[in-house]
Specification:
alpha/beta, Rossmann fold, Dehydroquinate synthase-like, alpha domain, 6-stranded parallel beta sheet, 8 strands, globular, binds zinc ion
Amino acid sequence: MKLWPAALVLPERTLSGAGIINQILAECAAFGRRGLLVHGRSLARHGTVASILSAAPAGLQVTAWQHTGGEPTLEDLAELLQAARQQRAEWVAGVGGGSVLDLAKACAGLFHAAQPLAAYHAGAALEKRGLPFIAAPTTAGTGSEATLNSVLTDTDLRIKKSMRDPQFIARLVLLDPELLRHCPPAIIAQAGMDALTQALEVFTSRHATWLSDVVALKGVELIAANLEAVYRGASAEEALGLLAGSYLSGVGLSMARLGVVHGLAHPLGLRYQAAHGLVCGICLPHAIALYRAAMGGKYAALSQAVGADLLTWTQGLGERLALRSPFKGRSLNDKEAIIQETLASGSTQANPQPITAADVEWLLEQLF
Ligand SMILES: [Zn+2]
């Protein structure tokens, strides 16, 4: 087994601790006097945006930009880029869930982009390095703070996919457990299932290395140990454990890619307007059942990390977190297109067991 991937990309610096979010603008000042603070609605509603801004060092020019919600699109990104360019921003900070972080990350990365955004979404390489990106997650999570991916939807082409570039990686990450305090339990559950799915798929990926195995297995262990406690309203220590697990799932996915759940989650999420983490959480037990044999000895290692038989535990977890299937009782439309998009996905191609059209069809039968 390889030690690590040919190119190892990690966030430059990561700070963690309760209350550390109040230092974010002092840290951002090191990147320049003008910058953009991208956030979601709930952060403003709970007064966190105001308290972050009130701690800004003198002379720092910060424009706060609120994402209206929902899965981020290329139109959202175009709007955000316009704000950043108008302000002549020197850095972009994202404080929010995966959608906010992905938007802020793409805005920073594509700040100097000369081509239409759809070209980069389709895979064009960046011509010039963008602005420094600073990330603080308010859910745990997508691990987006630690990845070189930004998942955006092209609404014209109806394609939701990940843009990847090593230059997207954060220059600074702040992991503050206080930020999870206002996160509703249902979002804790969905985001946690995304992080769990990611860590598990990284661990079993065909691109796995020694380092991604170490990182991902610890991620699974931390998420398994803390997710239910945080869902029920837990201490800062448990919230930090969950944030760390989510961060490690992101570090891992930059190294080893994912698996069939993420390959299927994008085409399904797009068509059924379902939250990414929920789709992952509902698909995960079926995927484990599908390719359990291909996991080999890793199934036992995962069972040890969660403290029970992996498949039984994962099935029970969905019930304990009250996950409701967004698919049951609905009709399956666009089946052929969903199957083809799943098979074409880089995530699916990283699955340890090669995935066939019949496998995707079987998964869809379990879901609907
Ligand atoms: Zn995910």
